[in-house]
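Changelog excerpt

This revision adds worked examples to the README so contributors can see how folded entries look when concatenated. The first example is reproduced verbatim below.
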Amino acid sequence: MIKNKIAVIVHACDRYELLFKGFEYFFSKYWDFEIPVNYYFATEEKSVDFKHFKNIKSGKGEWTNRLSNLLDQIDEDYVIYFQEDMWLSKPVDEEVFTQLFDLVLANKWPLVKLNSSPVFKTNSTDMFIKGFNVSVLNNKESDFLMSHQVSLWDKAFLKQQLMANEHPWRNERKGTKRLRKLDPEIFHMDYFAENGSPAINKNAAEVVRSEYQGISLNATLNHNVVPFLEELKSAPHLSAYTQQLQYNYTHQVTHDGKPKPLKKDFFKRMKTWLKGK
């Protein structure tokens, strides 16, 4: 049964607790829960109670250690990876995912990237899912082979990329070097328009993409959150929550009111990103 083989895991840190409710609200609005997967909302020590998600906890520690711990707690063979600041803004199609799951499970693919970005360079294949070309990354020309955007991972393969005691920016940078050397076959679909990014593959003209926005940068809300704030104003039961989000955005207060975290590799990462663009 596919449902027992694939999970959605939302990897969250407790400092970002302010974003949890918003993620769950828009995920529940746009996700199709007929998609045959199990759902986990992963925190460090805080508890959450969301209708569709089982709460699992990593404990405190470095980023790779926490994610590795979480993966050990779930039985599914594959995971669709989200983070709590990736808020869905367009509907998700159940048929796209069930067809993708059939291909992934039959062929034992290690990784399918599901977000579009100019840092990825791809080669077309003869495989299509509802007009989306299932392409293959050119590992030599692509940047960020290891990335934390929405992707479908073989759980064991993902765990292998999590070297002990790496913070997320180092994991992407060092992990990309490791994957480039390993040179696995990495697949790509233009399904999610991350922050509105255009498609990069040779898809059929009529494809209908989903979308998510990254609404946080360095522990503060960015401009992508504005449409979500407008929509949340129509939900009276979330009035106090919406006001808190609006205040933090307007005054650029961090999600927990503490100083912004130091991103040790931030400038190196941005330099590589801009080079890819």
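The second example, added in the same revision:
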Amino acid sequence: MKRISAWLAAVLLAVGLGLLVPGAASAAPYCGITWGSVAKSSVMTTTAPIAGVRAGRHNCYDRLVIDINGRGAGFKVAYVDAVHAEGSGRVIPLSGGAFLSVTAAAPGAGVVGREVVDVSGFSTFREVAFAGSFENRTTFGLGVRARLPFQIFTLDGPGSGSRLVIDVAHFW
């Protein structure tokens, strides 16, 4: 009886420590996301203006898309303590626990208004605000729930345009 009790106690302890749970020792990242949260940038530039900004919800991340009426816009995206307006440098107030400064190397002719995209009900996004356009650079403030992994990439199309795509994961 002592042997069975000792064996049962050892098994329960191992399960409690996660030693006997398959995959516990090497848990996969959330949805396979391995993006990280360090600043990302590209030095390309374009004189083609921004045509619009939109957002979408996905199972593992929220997505911000900046449509450009041409190809090749560069970008700089980074977590910051505060997002600053292009030209004046004033702080752009944002909702959220963390802030991404999203700068597209393209003029912001097609962007108007402070809150450019309604993200109510999104899992990660809290607010998307226009922070100005100056000297062929357009900045947006992206308020998010917390400092979470993100990725940014460009896509060609539709037509002769392109898109900057920013995905922010719901969790680590």
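Reviewer comment on example two: The chain has one domain: 31-169. The radius of gyration is 22 Å.
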